[in-house]
Amino acid sequence: MLAFVCLSCAVANAGESVKLTATLAPERLGHGTTVGFGFDIASSAKRVPPPLVGMVLRYPGNLGFALSGLGLATCEPATLETHGPKGCPANSRMGFGAASAQIAVEGSIVPEAADVAIVRGPTREGHLGLLFYVDGSEPVSAQIVLPGLLVPAAPPFGGAISLGVPLVPSWPEGPNVAIVSLRSTLGPEHLTYYEHVKGRTIAYNPEGILLPKVCPRGGFRFAGTFAFLDGSKATAGTAVPCPRRG
């Protein structure tokens, strides 16, 4: 997996900063890849940052999401909420990840870890839907669905993942859980799809998100906008460098 380069780590408000990361694995021009992305929210004041309520991740305009062969089936949000990713069709799965959060408890910061699964959701207003299933167990047991869409983005980007983040109370009338990091992938890595051919079920790996045959100048650029419950926003960018020739 190719390392990322952080281009900007933007200030969210008086004590918070956000860093965006991205990877392409493998990075072979003209071939399919798995796109990795993540963010980290840090507080220099040693306190829990305000809860994240939404984000928009813009990706390069020359990535072939439409030709990826991902998300051939759809999972309904109600099915995902009730049964988890196992209740969704195998061919709806699009990626995996992990998240961490923090809770303010009597002057202390309590960490929370969660697994993440990404499946294709219903199309909305002509845009492909994504559903991020976040499964946390300790200290707060919570399973939440983050609704997302693949939407257009202004040049030099080709599109964006627009993601809503619902508020999750730590306990009744307690403080909201604040997501402070996320690592996710979109692509064929660790995915198995199934196809029915002449009465047989054949397992295969999707091709993946197609990279162009020529790397854009400056590498593959990503940018994120993050919105917080207190009304503040942050922007951050990163780029995956062009692969070395030979």
Keywords:
12-stranded antiparallel barrel, about 250 residues, 15 strands, 1 helix, globular
Write up what this structure looks like.
The longest helix is centred in the first third of the chain and has 7 residues. The chain has one domain. With 246 residues, it is an all-beta fold. The radius of gyration is 18 Å and the shape is globular. The strands form two sheets. A twelve-stranded antiparallel barrel has the order 1-2-3-10-5-6-7-8-9-4-14-15. Strands 11-12 form a two-stranded antiparallel ribbon.
Q: Layout of SSEs?
A:
Blueprint: E1 5-13, E2 16-25, E3 32-43, E4 52-60, H1 77-83, E5 93-105, E6 108-124, E7 127-136, E8 142-151, E9 157-164, E10 178-186, E11 193-197, E12 200-204, E13 209-210, E14 220-228, E15 233-240
Can I get a quick summary?
With 246 residues, the protein is mainly β. 3% of the residues lie in helices and 55% in strands.
- What's the story with the biggest beta sheet? 12 strands, antiparallel, barrel
Separation of the first and last Cα atoms: 17 Å
Give unreliable regions as ranges.
Answer: 1-14
Mean pLDDT: 88
The share of residues in extended strands comes to over 45%
Helical proportion?
A: under 10%
Identify the overall geometry.
Answer: globular
Strand order of the largest sheet: 1-2-3-10-5-6-7-8-9-4-14-15
Q: What is the count of β-strands?
A: 15
Q: Helical element count?
A: 1
Radius of gyration, whole Å: 18 Å
Order of helices and strands: EEEEHEEEEEEEEEEE
Structural class: mainly beta
The overall number of domains is 1
